[in-house]
């Protein structure tokens, strides 16, 4: 079984005919149109074939083949949708998949360990790294801009940052 990557989360059902509302974990929600099937988290051996896709505001509405009733899909609520890692799109330079960043060690310019990356908040202006300070376990929020994030190494799971006074308590 190959490695899987989250591309969305089912947040609710849509109507009575088996459609589900999906919050996309991608900034290119049309991405779902390139997929024939997806998996649900914790049921990776069970493929769900995509029958129909439409959009409602920031959500993707998916209809799976053979699941034609709200009762068939209600149990999917809050589950993550996964795809095979080899089906990921090629990313532009200096762009990374969040799943490749989570857990990375955050180090300063002198190679001192600051903490680990817990999450990435996707924001209209720029993404924000949520880092757990290794000393006091408090959260540090680092805007993902060249001024602060100097080097990202997904292979070694290390992110080098230059912080300013007041960012770390």
Give me the Rg, rounded.
Answer: 19 Å
List SSEs in N-to-C order: EEEEEHEHEEEEEE
How many discrete structural domains?
2
Structural class: mainly beta
Biggest sheet, in brief?
Answer: 6 strands, antiparallel, barrel
For CATH, the homologous superfamily of the largest domain is named as: RimM
Q: Extract low-pLDDT stretches.
A: none
Any idea what the CATH architecture of the largest domain is?
A: Beta Barrel
CA-based shape: elongated
Give helix % range: under 10%
Please specify the SSE layout and strand pairing.
Layout: E1 4-14, E2 19-24, E3 37-40, E4 43-56, E5 59-64, H1 70-73, E6 80-84, H2 98-101, E7 105-107, E8 113-121, E9 128-133, E10 139-143, E11 149-153, E12 158-161
Parallel strand pairs: 7-12
Antiparallel strand pairs: 1-2, 1-6, 2-5, 3-4, 3-6, 4-5, 7-8, 8-9, 9-10, 11-12
């Amino acid at each position: 079984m190959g490695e899987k990557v989250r591309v969305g989360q089912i947040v609710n059902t849509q109507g009575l005919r088996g459609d589900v509302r999906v919050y996309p974990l991608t900034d290119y929600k049309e991405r779902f149109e390139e997929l024939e099937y997806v998996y649900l988290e914790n049921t990776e051996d069970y493929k769900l074939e995509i029958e129909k896709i439409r959009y409602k505001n920031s959500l993707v509405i998916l209809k799976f083949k053979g699941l034609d009733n709200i009762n068939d899909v209600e149990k999917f609520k809050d589950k993550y949708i996964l795809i095979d890692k080899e089906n990921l799109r090629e990313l532009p330079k200096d762009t990374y998949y969040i799943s490749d960043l989570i857990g990375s060690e955050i180090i300063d310019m002198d190679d001192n360990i600051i903490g680990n990356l817990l999450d990435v908040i996707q924001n209209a202006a720029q993404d924000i790294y949520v880092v757990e300070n290794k000393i006091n376990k408090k959260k540090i929020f680092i805007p993902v801009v060249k001024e602060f994030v100097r080097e990202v190494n997904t292979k070694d799971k290390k992110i080098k940052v230059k912080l300013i006074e007041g960012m770390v308590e």
